[in-house]
Amino acid sequence: MALYSEQRLMVHNSLSGKKELFEPLHEGYVGMYVCGPTVYSNVHLGNCRTFMSFDMIFRYLRHLGYKVRYVRNITDAGHLEDDADQGEDKIAKKARLEQIEPMEVVQRYTVDFHNILEKFNFLPPSIEPTATGHIVEQIEIIKVILDKGYAYEKNGSVYFDVVKFNSDHEYGKLSGRKLEDMIANTRELTAQDEKKNPQDFALWKRAEPQHIMRWPSPWGEGFPGWHLECTVMSTKYLGETFDIHGGGMDLKFPHHECEIAQAEASNDVSPVRYWLHANMLTLNGKKMAKSTGNNLLPHEIFTGDNPTLSKAYTASVVRFFMMQAHYTSILDLSDDALLAAEKGYNRLMDALDLLGNLNTGKQSDMDVAAWKQRCYDAMNDDFNSPVLIAQLFEAVKTINLVNDGKASLTQEDLAVLTEVMNAFVFDVLGLETRTGAGVESNKLEGVVGLLIELRNAARANKDYATSDRIRDELAAMGIQLKDGKEGTTFSI
Ligand SMILES: [Zn+2]
Predict the structure, then answer these.
(1) How far away, in angstroms, is 490 Cα from ligand 1 center?
(2) Among 28, 289, 313, 479, which is most buried by a count of CB atoms within 10 Å?
(3) 375 annotated to a ligand binding site
(4) Which SUPFAM superfamilies match (predicted)?
(5) Exposure string for 139-154, b = 16+ CB within 10 A, e = fewer
(6) Distance between CA atoms of 57 and 108, rounded to whole angstroms?
(7) Cα–Cα distance for residue pair 451/175, rounded to 1 Å
């Protein structure tokens, strides 16, 4: 029986503003879409936090036994400098400034994005589609929306008619905004504006002569509006209605609101069952911004090369720091907070290192089954990772007491505790051990432990040829065995 059938996962749905029982459309399967980066600059640490929140959610769903199709896109066209369909395409602008091809910009920053996420031990999504790879599909959906009367063409551009849509649908239901208020609070359109209404948004934009990224369409050469790619790629790979759509809080309006409008206008069904939004990361109590200098890039954390930091931090310490906050809360990063996180992370890893060498007893001083369920309860409560971490530290306390001979655990309980600790620390939170590769390094410990046992058995049989061979071959691979009073340990 899959774990998910024993657990009641509740998620905070931005659409209802409430925590709801998570029930996927198809039992055992979850479709999840997360808005990916616009690849025109190095990935921002705040964005890393958003993607890490969804990586943790992806990991927990998998841990529960769901087969998850996780789609996270790459925006490589159509994202203009401001939300009102004005300004240059962000990627084309960077290409112009650096005098390179737009696709060189895309390639450079996609590689940077992947490198940083790999350092943070992210699981890759199931599909990572690009906007430029789905131009045909975007043109097709524009035709449908035009046919249904929810869009209009003007001078080679196509705009979504928000007022028309709102007359028989509800525009603003995700962000809790009313169209009448939006209209009352915006400026009048000028004679140059092509839109009927300032709230209308571009589905297709005519390419001006200097615009490099352009494709042919029934309305002339142009490029798709930014909101459209997510509607197309999410529904293409996950179906007209799918389970989870995630993204940063800042995307709720207008981006996600527009996604809902486009999908409902073309398919007549609501695209997403659970909308999840991750909150932002601040630095020393203030919003991060390049312009004010209150900014920190991921690679600067790993080198310590930023005035705000006293030293370098590993990716796992940063990940542990981020997991200490609920994904819907604002999290403030500072040097002090990272130092504290490093201490906590080391305490956790110290305890995990002890797990393999604990003596077991006849009775347990900890109710391990109840503790295990409390770990699940924490994650079932809208992926409450800080409460989970508090539970993990309850186990750390017991592990240290058992190690000091001041408490005991039965062999069975120790086995359960070890399994649950490893599952939550490495599989769900995605942390890695201090030597690097999380679960991989755990496996290595297991393999070397087995070789140590075989070597001990050989020595007991006076088969010194075998025992020396094990020691020497491990040494040749850079793994040193050390024989001591407490038995044999190893170092790499
Ligand atoms: Zn999106």
Answers:
(1) 48
(2) 313
(3) no
(4) Anticodon-binding domain of a subclass of class I aminoacyl-tRNA synthetases (SSF47323), Nucleotidylyl transferase (SSF52374)
(5) bebbeebbeeebbbbe
(6) 28
(7) 58
